[in-house]
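Input record, target 12 of the design panel.
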C-alpha cells in the first residue's frame, strides 16, 4: 500500500514538472497541458481510492484486505508474497494416508502443531502418538501442549542464532545444571539466575555472571558487557525433545518421505498455483475432495479393488 501510494505521488510530481515545462516551451498549445491535467486527476482519484482501502485495512483485525477473496490472506508473515490459504495435513508414515487436514488463513505453521497432532491421534483412536514436523512448526507453547497431551513431538529448532551467524558462541555451548539452576560457559564460569521477565505471556529466566569483563575469550562470546542466557520456564520440554532428535536423526528423513510425497502428488494433480474456488468454506470443501480422492487412490494401491469392495460391502 505504501509503495503504491509513493509511486502515485512520484508520478503526480513528474506530471506537474512536465506541465511547468510545457507552459514555458509551448505557451500557445494547451492540448499537452490538458492531457497532463487529466492524468493527474486520474492519479489523484486512484490515491483517494487507496486511502479509503487503507482506512478499511487498518480496521481489519490482521490489517489485511484481499480484494478478490475476502478470506484469503498473505502467506508471508511480513505482509507480502502469495495470497491464499495454508493447508495443514497429518500423514500416516506407514501407508502415506492423510489422516487429518485443515485449511487455515495464517501463513505461519507455528501455531498448528498441537491441533493437527490431536486430530491425527483422534483419527487413529489411540491415546499416544508420535508426530514429526519441520522447523516451521517449532513453538515452545505448541511443543508443551503436545507433551501435556502425551504426544511425542520431533521438531528441530530454527537456525536463528545471530551470535552463531556472527561466528560467536551460541546458547548451545552453555551447559545447564538442573541441580544448581545455573549455566556453565565454555570458559568454565557459572551463569547464575538473576531475574525473570515476561515476553509474549511467557516467563523467561535470565542468567549472568560477573566474570565476563576479565574473560580471555569474551570476544568469541558476546559484544555486550555481559553474556546473558535466557531460559523459558518450560525449557526442559524443549531439551527433552532435542535429546529425542539427537537419538533419532532419521526422523526428519521420515518426514520428508511421508508428507512431502503427499503434497507432491496433490500439486501434480491440482497444479501448484491456484484453488478453483474462493472463500474459506469453499476452499476447505475443494481441499477435502482432493484429499478424499488421494486417499481413495492410495487405498486402491495398497489393498486392491477387490479387497476395498469387500470392505465397503462389509461396512
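The sequence produced for target 12 reads:
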Amino acid at each position: 500500500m505504501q509503495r503504491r501510494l509513493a509511486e502515485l505521488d512520484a508520478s503526480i510530481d513528474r506530471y506537474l514538472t512536465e506541465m511547468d515545462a510545457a507552459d514555458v516551451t509551448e505557451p500557445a498549445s494547451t492540448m499537452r497541458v490538458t492531457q497532463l491535467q487529466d492524468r493527474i486527476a486520474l492519479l489523484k482519484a486512484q490515491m483517494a481510492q487507496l486511502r479509503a482501502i487503507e482506512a478499511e485495512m487498518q480496521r481489519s483485525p490482521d490489517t489485511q484486505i484481499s480484494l478478490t477473496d475476502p478470506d484469503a490472506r498473505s502467506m508471508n508473515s511480513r505482509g507480502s508474497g502469495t495470497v491464499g490459504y495454508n493447508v495443514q495435513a497429518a500423514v500416516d508414515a506407514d501407508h502415506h494416508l492423510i489422516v487429518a487436514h485443515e485449511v487455515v488463513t495464517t501463513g505461519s505453521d507455528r501455531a498448528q502443531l498441537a491441533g493437527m497432532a490431536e486430530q491425527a491421534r483422534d483419527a487413529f483412536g489411540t491415546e499416544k502418538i508420535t508426530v514429526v514436523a519441520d522447523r516451521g512448526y517449532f513453538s515452545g507453547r505448541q511443543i508443551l501442549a503436545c507433551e501435556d497431551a502425551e504426544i511425542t513431538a520431533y521438531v528441530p529448532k530454527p537456525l536463528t542464532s545471530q551470535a552463531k551467524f556472527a561466528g560467536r558462541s551460541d546458547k548451545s555451548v552453555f551447559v545447564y545444571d538442573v541441580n544448581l539452576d545455573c549455566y556453565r560457559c565454555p570458559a568454565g564460569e557459572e551463569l547464575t539466575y538473576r531475574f525473570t521477565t515476561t515476553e509474549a505471556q511467557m516467563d523467561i529466566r535470565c542468567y549472568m555472571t560477573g566474570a565476563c569483563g576479565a574473560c580471555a575469550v569474551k570476544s568469541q562470546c558476546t559484544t555486550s558487557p555481559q553474556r546473558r542466557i535466557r531460559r523459558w520456564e518450560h525449557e526442559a520440554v524443549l531439551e527433552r525433545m532435542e535429546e529425542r532428535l539427537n537419538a533419532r536423526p532419521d526422523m526428519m528423513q521420515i518426514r520428508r518421505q511421508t508428507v512431502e510425497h503427499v503434497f507432491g502428488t496433490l500439486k501434480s494433480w491440482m497444479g501448484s498455483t491456484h484453488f478453483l474456488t474462493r472463500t474459506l468454506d469453499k476452499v476447505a470443501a475443494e481441499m477435502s475432495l482432493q484429499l478424499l480422492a488421494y486417499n481413495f487412490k492410495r487405498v486402491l494401491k495398497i489393498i486392491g479393488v477387490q479387497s476395498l469392495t469387500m470392505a465397503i460391502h462389509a461396512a
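Residues 162-232 form one domain.
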